[in-house]
Amino acid sequence: MTDISSASGPAASKAKEAKSKVFHRKVKNYSRYERFWHWSQAILIFVLAFSGFTVHGTIRFIPFHSAVMMHDIAAFVLIFLWLFTAFWTFTTGQWRHFVPTNAGLWEVIMHYLVGMMRGQPHPYKRTLSRKQNPLQSFAYFSIMTLVGPLLWLSGLAYMFYSFWAGNSGNHEIFSLVVLLHLIGAFLMVAFVIGHIYMVTTGKTLIHYTKAMITGFEDMELTEAEVTYLEAHEPDRIK
Amino acid sequence: MANFASKGRRPHIKALRGLVMAVSALSFVSLLSLSNIEALAASGQETLPHSPVNADAKASALQLSGKPAGGTADHSKFEILQQDFKSGPEVTKACLSCHTEAADQVQHTLHWKWETKNEATGQTLGKRTVINSFCGNVASNEPRCTSCHAGYGWEDMRQPPPSDPEAVDCLVCHADTALYKKFPTKAGHPLYEPTPWNGKIVQPPNLSMAAQSVTNPQRENCGSCHYYGGGGDGVKHGDLDSSLNHPDAALDVHMNADGLNMACTACHSGSGHQWPGSRYSTEAKPTTITNDGEETKTAKIRSLDQHAGLMEPSASCESCHSARPHDGNDIMGIKLNDHTDTVACQTCHVPEFARGGVATKTLWDWSTAGKLKDGKPYKVMDEHGHPSYMSEKGDFEYAENVQPFYSWFNGETTWTLLDDTIDPTKVVEINALGGSATDGKSRIWPFKRMHSRQPYDKANNQLVYNHVFGKDDTALWTNFDWDKSVPAAMEFIGKDFSGELGFVDTYMYWPITHMVAPKEQAVRCTECHAKEGRLDGITGIYMPGRDNFKWLDWIGYAAFGLTLLGVLIHALLRIIFRNRKTQA
């Protein structure tokens, strides 16, 4: 097991340089758009899961036709949000946070399995250039590039089957589309449960939730970072 | 006349008031005309608004047919129709003196020939030969059954219908049904002299008045036969009965007497006395595309193309409503339109049949027919006043507001005919429905599934004909003896009968297409998209809400459960070890 602080890379070396002097400050890690994206996506996913599993016949709190309408509308909004966020992520350079990395992934996993029970601190230190730990990056990257597109591509095929199936009586392919959509749905549900639980593993139960609402989070900064933020982005630091 | 008021039809209430006032004030002449109307009212029938005995006859009161109401001729003014006709054929002769091609046209139709060749199956079908789940067969029972032939005097099914042009019955389709009626046992003729029937003396119709009342066929005309098939009102079809003479919107949005008031021919719209829409070749998935592959954008274009011979005449919903009938500007409409490739319009829009207060027969068990009490035939009525047993016919069940039976249907039916071998250990399908989920030609259709127990030849495993009607010593309804009636019928048509009579369960399928309910009453999504819903028996298609992928659902729910369990265990461990604090 390697110590994460000795890992190579710009973030790690920067942390090493500033080890002598660490500033604990509140920094705005999540921009307004990011928070809007997160919470609107959260609501939409809940609506989609609720209505989707109603259509599937798992739950029955609302009528079938309402569920279908809800699901269709929410799906379009989410796809639009997804596309716009993809655009936003690339134009603002935020995509860097999501690139998965193996470095430190194992340590983070072991922390959640073992270290946490021993009261050990989190092995990963957030930095301005990398605000997600490797496990987060891995999970979010998978959701955004695999499960999400699987769901909405199969969902669009599901929704518009009349356009491609026509009058052919092509019901087998339709079944396959439903199958893929359902696999995606189960994966998404599993992710959401895990995600919501992980949110409670911060310094306090609501630490992460609060951060995603206010945008601000306690960070360990170097002197250079503090100086830079105070001079150029005073809104981002308290 | 007074019973118009009870129907709540305002123009007639006014007309009635006017009439009453006029009568009270006026002279002997108007009293005379009133007595004429009273005589009709007393006979328990309504005169149609266009009848010549109704002084306020207006073409606008006619039902909406394939042709616009109001023409250029008033038949009551034709001298040739003012004669004292002695018989139906005499009337027809007068009709043909102007309508020179009418008889020839009629004599080329299914209404006349009762015979049609099914090109797909090669079977010869039609009333002349098929066996149905009701009275069974026409042959050997002619004068009773051919009372619904569109002609006069077809007395032997072994022969084609009479070829004489004057044998065509114009009046049954075109005259006011209050003024003209075929008599039940006269092989298509009306009465020509007073005749006792069911303990009363029935008067013959005034053929001159009937002839002067002619117009485009009204629902009452078509209904005079099609409502009463199988031996009574509503018995056979389930979606055709006398309640459609004056239906409200809830019963049928198209025929709604206070609304569109469409006649049968508004949809069954053809030319040359040929009407599309026969059960013998149904359009299960009607096209809106011409023979050249052109999409017809509107009902008017389709109508023109059909008249021009560019596409087959059609009596389908799509003819007017297109294949994407729901509002495409909202998501629900788009979603509903997505159903039209697999679900017939009628499946959702005729939620139940026999909704007009007239019950339809759902079960007919012939095997119990022939029982007598004190040597006499008897009848048992059920709590709704329908016969549940008759010595002549056996046991019955009737039902109202019946939910249809659903099946894939490509429009083809394969009939069990006299020469076909049956498997008596199974329910025999009188007209087995063709179609499947995958042929691209089928849709899910609603049917009345008639259940019967019918006579068959136990040795040959074939259905048999039965001689039921006649004042002879073999007819079942006169002699109550199966051992005479079946052999008599088989001998009549020259078929072998082993002498071993059995009874076999049969199903007969009647496509449901009339009694289209208002859209608010259409079948709800959840009535099909649910387990144990209306379409539970439909296979070959994935239906959201009804179906799942067993193993995937199992894995999915297990994954859900295990994830939840995982986080709960993790949370528990965190609570247990919450006080441990080690320095990193």
Automatic annotation (TrEMBL), chain A:
It comes from the Bacteria. PANTHER family: NI/FE-HYDROGENASE 1 B-TYPE CYTOCHROME SUBUNIT, NI_FE-HYDROGENASE 1 B-TYPE CYTOCHROME SUBUNIT-RELATED. It is found in: Cell membrane. This is Thiosulfate reductase cytochrome b subunit. The chain crosses the membrane at residues 36-61, 73-91, 138-161, 173-197. Residues 29-215 form the Cytochrome b561 bacterial/Ni-hydrogenase domain. SUPFAM superfamilies: Transmembrane di-heme cytochromes. It is a multi-pass membrane protein. Belongs to the HupC/HyaC/HydC family.
From TrEMBL, chain B:
Residues 94-174, 263-349 form the Cytochrome c-552/4 domain. The keyword Membrane applies. SUPFAM superfamilies: Multiheme cytochromes (SSF48695). Keywords: Membrane, Signal, Transmembrane, Transmembrane helix. GO terms for molecular function: oxidoreductase activity. InterPro entries: Cyt_c-552/4, Multihaem_cyt_sf, Multiheme_Cytochr_ET, Octahem_Cyt_c. It holds the Pfam family Cytochrome_cB. The chain crosses the membrane at residues 554-577. The keyword Membrane applies. Gene3D superfamilies: Flavocytochrome C3, Chain A (1.10.1130.10). It comes from the Bacteria. This is Octaheme c-type cytochrome, tetrathionate reductase family. It comes from Cohaesibacter marisflavi.
